[in-house]
Specification:
Number of helices: 6
Distance between the termini: 12 Å
Catalytic activity: dTTP + H2O = dTMP + diphosphate + H(+); UTP + H2O = UMP + diphosphate + H(+)
Structural class: alpha/beta
GO molecular function: dTTP diphosphatase activity; UTP diphosphatase activity
Main location: cytoplasm
Function: Nucleoside triphosphate pyrophosphatase that hydrolyzes dTTP and UTP. May have a dual role in cell division arrest and in preventing the incorporation of modified nucleotides into cellular nucleic acids.
Bound molecules: thymidine-5'-triphosphate
EC number: 3.6.1.9
Number of domains: 1
CATH architecture: Alpha-Beta Complex
Helix content: 25-40%
CATH topology: Maf protein
Amino acid sequence: MELVLASGSPRRRELLSQLGLHFTPVNYQVDETITNCSLTPEKIVQELSIRKAKAAQQDFTDALIIGADTIVFDGISILGKPKDQHEAIQMLTQLQGKEHQVYTGITLIELVDGVVKECKSGVRMTRVWMRTLLKSEIEEYVLTGEPMDKAGSYGIQGIGATLIDRIDGCYFNVVGLSLVLLQDLFRQIDKSMNQFR
Ligand SMILES: Cc1cn([C@H]2C[C@H](O)[C@@H](COP(=O)(O)OP(=O)(O)OP(=O)(O)O)O2)c(=O)[nH]c1=O
């Protein structure tokens, strides 16, 4: 049985490697549109992590597939990755000087002989406090390019660290993959990470 990470995110790949796991990274185009506007942030990341894990199913027969999704919620709107620099500036203007929440959903699908044996999902939320930012600081940060592939338009693990006052909850959840949640999902389906080391 092989471990498959259905994600194009370099952060998620680094985090799995950090655990000493051997895995096959794959990246499929998944429709991330949410049509049901009444879905909670929890339900959205759960649903999208399921879609991402399912997309990889077609190419494997015996595998443990990981899918994940991260969004930012400030109590008003749900923020994904910005579509351009203008939107990144808008998001950071909205988030600065207050608290927001980062939600990451993870789904594990166990495939045996091409059939789904187990499918488990979980969600973690981390509270993040961003300091007050000057317009010029936001513009300078966006020009670094760092925000462009990140939910909420910042990366806590990079230059974005200088924008964050404090967090409450799992740091890795903000970066895109709560490792303690991943461990818990392995346990729920009676799998050990050691099998993939
Ligand atoms: C808030 C925040 C998000 N992020 C990243 C994590 C995710 O990679 C990304 C959110 O987008 P996602 O759609 O969750 O993931 P992705 O498009 O990067 O990869 P894939 O769908 O193929 O798995 O934002 C950071 O790296 N640092 C942060 O501080």
